[in-house]
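Hey, can you fold this one?
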Amino acid sequence: MQPALPEPVTAARNDFESKVGSNDTAHYKFGRGAGTATPIWNEAITKPLTTGAAVFVPVRYDHPYPIATNLARNILFNINQLQWLVICPTLNHGYTASVITYYPDSSYSALSAFTGIIRQENWNGEFMASYKFEKGGKVRKLVSSSNPASRQSSASNNLLLLQVCYRSFGYNYMASDPETGYYWEMDLGCDNLYVSDFSDGNGGNTFADTYGPNWEGGGVGGFGGASSFTVVNGDNPIANVKDYIRCFDNIAGTKTYHVTICVDQPNPGVRDTWGVAGTSSSATGNPVSTGHTFLVLSETGFNGTITRNVGFYPKYLVSPTQPVSQGQLNNDAEHNYNISLTLSVTNSEFFQMLDFVNDANQPGYNYDLNSNNCTNFAINTLGAAGISIPARQGTWPGGKGFNPGDFGEDIRAMTLGPNMTRNTTFNDHPNLGNCY
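Sure. Predicted structure:
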């Protein structure tokens, strides 16, 4: 049972839902192809104003995505860390509601006052205002870069020295558009610098006083970002592959053999080639999750079951701009997954696959993000035994190829043969069996 909400939050929620609908149907329209977003009322915080308590409610997407701006180049932020529904009381005992998105700049620090742009929209995603917060507390109201008339000086005696315009942009790779992806840009406004602008703070800014994210007793903070889309090496490398798989016996007719393809999708159930904050092989602190595909190899006979987990990784960090590294096999017995396909195979097919796996640690056998990644490795391992699995390629910023997001959905949609079993529930898959 959820604890009762504080009175200011309850009052704000009741007013908001009376206007736009209940929490079950009130979805923010900003989604940009990334699914719906809803306010998380039990995580709301309040800020005292002269008219009462303003309520800041985190806005969370059911399908979050990375976002970047030209304020902080090469840094990706998680949209679920940037956006809040803000409900403010008015003098006539009513409320106003808007969605506030914080766009930190490259000098932002969680230990200091917010610097960057705050954009205000209504719940339908219609632009309301945009402000730039600078070091030293100065705040500038920005004008639209798409409307030349709005960029004209309202003070004709001021000399315009410089105009800087800001954009937000991102990539979404959705099931509805798996081939080309979904790229978007958004105008954050322009900063017009005049001679008269070069003065100390502007004091008494109502917008800054209300929506500035740092205040006594609480604040909106911690906009964690990452500098790249990165895939890291495995955490339990297989040093000697021959020793790792030597317990398997090639004895026809007395043993059964199975191979399971396990897929950890970046966003389970959709064809995203990458997503935000998953359990995959993304670098620590990186909001981008790339997913992972690996194999579980099993042999069962009169002496019990032998099981080995094998995944393929880069030995060193790779990214779309540096996609190639020496490859390295990893013991993935602890790795999570959300969909798998198990195949019953013959002893001949099983050992053809083992022969293929045995070569993957050789010097010069490279991991390539675009053409020989973890998903390629699983597909090619089965292919070495003449087994073909339907697979679709997808795209991501700076590259394309087979990937866990698409491959998981290919497995979900495929027609199963009599020797195949599909599973959409995670099961433990430890290594089993020893030989001497």
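The longest helix spans residues 7-20. Let me know if you want another pass with a different chain boundary.
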